[in-house]
Amino acid sequence: MQLSPGAAALEAALARACPGAAPLAVAVSGGGDSLALLLAAAARAEASGPPVAAVTVDHGLRPEAADEARSVAAICARLGVPHSTLVWQGWDGRGNLQDAARRARMRLIADWALARGIGRVALAHTRDDQAETLLMRLARGAGVDGLAAMAPERQALGVTWLRPFLDIPRADLRAFLTERGQTWADDPSNDDPRFDRVRVRQALALLAPLGIGAEGLAATAARLGAARTALDACTAEAAARIAVEEAGDVVLDEAARAALPAEIGRRLLLGALAWVSGADYPPRAEALAATLARLETAPRTTLQGCLLVRKAGRLRIGREPAAVVGLSAPLDALWDGRWRLAGPATGGEEVRALGEAGLALCPDWRATGLPRSSLLASPAVWRGGALVAAPLAGRGTDWSATVNRPFRTRLLSH
């Protein structure tokens, strides 16, 4: 069948962003953008493209959401695409609703995909979303990172997230659906002025007569994205020269860090904090500045679940012991988001922080050369109340503790 220009553009975008034959998941809400992604991906699969599965998240916030999920399921059945609906019930009425829903949605989808052996998930963000995001972040005083374009590919939660339609206007997706005779649901929150994105969308219409439109703003975001990539590369190069990864800590040469351009030094610190803490967002600029000011007069301070210790010309950024008290994980899972332990398990083991009680059972810990505070926050293997192994503290030589991803890779992963 001859493809229309709109359908051909969507198919070409999918082929560029999602090459190969590996299975592909698509996140489908029932709105126009995600339904266009679903139909285009299903058509590609039918034409010998990668197999497709669809997933819908019902956030449980609107009574219509369950009906919309059932509608998506019916469309998928017609297309021959396997479909799952995931339900989120975690909203406690506090904080930023849209941000909490977005994070929960990503976690649910990632877990669902990984359980099915699917390593990549396509999202239906468009050129319009790029422009709206830039304006929202501009209003918050964001710098290069915040204003940079959403990446077409990103690694997070063990999954590759793909955005094949970032260069395509939302109107083209709706035209594609109309051409296919496919209706879609509009989420009422898309017209609710309580939400920043809705107000920004309305502002874009007012800015159009000034020549400020989605296409130009998306191009600006892309240029800022290129600048961010260059800054990341410079930061990674600086890390290779002046940063040492030691037992899950990052140790910086303070004099060398001070000699870096201010932005590179700042990014290096933020990268270390993010890698050690696993936090989704960096600390605010004011909090970072206040922390560095404290270090001018005090040898140690804390920030974002990290302990920063200045000693003998070095700045060590490690996990704050108090931040991991009570944190546990099965032996076959990551502990604190990054540690994996392996050894001669016999059953019933779990990973917890070594802590004061565990360190007291490691008489040779000083021989490791690691600071006491780092060992207190280090991973250990426990069976009930009994310490089985503490690899970083010198107990249990047949056990190992490794970080799942090197520090420098964190500096290059947006």
UniProtKB/TrEMBL annotation:
Binding site for ATP: S29, G30, G31, G32, D33, S34
Annotated Gene Ontology cellular component terms: cytoplasm
UniProt KW ATP-binding keyword: yes
tRNA(Ile)-lysidine/2-thiocytidine synthase N-terminal domain ranges (all copies): 25-202
Domain of life: Bacteria
SUPFAM superfamilies (alphabetical): Adenine nucleotide alpha hydrolases-like
Role description: Ligates lysine onto the cytidine present at position 34 of the AUA codon-specific tRNA(Ile) that contains the anticodon CAU, in an ATP-dependent manner. Cytidine is converted to lysidine, thus changing the amino acid specificity of the tRNA from methionine to isoleucine.
Record-level GO BP terms: tRNA modification
Key words of the record: ATP-binding, Cytoplasm, Ligase, Nucleotide-binding, tRNA processing
Entry's Gene Ontology molecular function annotations: ATP binding; tRNA(Ile)-lysidine synthase activity
EC number: 6.3.4.19
Family membership noted in the UniProt record: Belongs to the tRNA(Ile)-lysidine synthase family.
Swiss-Prot/TrEMBL domain comment: The N-terminal region contains the highly conserved SGGXDS motif, predicted to be a P-loop motif involved in ATP binding.
Compartments in which it is found: Cytoplasm
Primary site of residence: cytoplasm
Keyword Ligase: yes
Catalytic activity field: cytidine(34) in tRNA(Ile2) + L-lysine + ATP = lysidine(34) in tRNA(Ile2) + AMP + diphosphate + H(+)
Protein name per its UniProtKB record: tRNA(Ile)-lysidine synthase
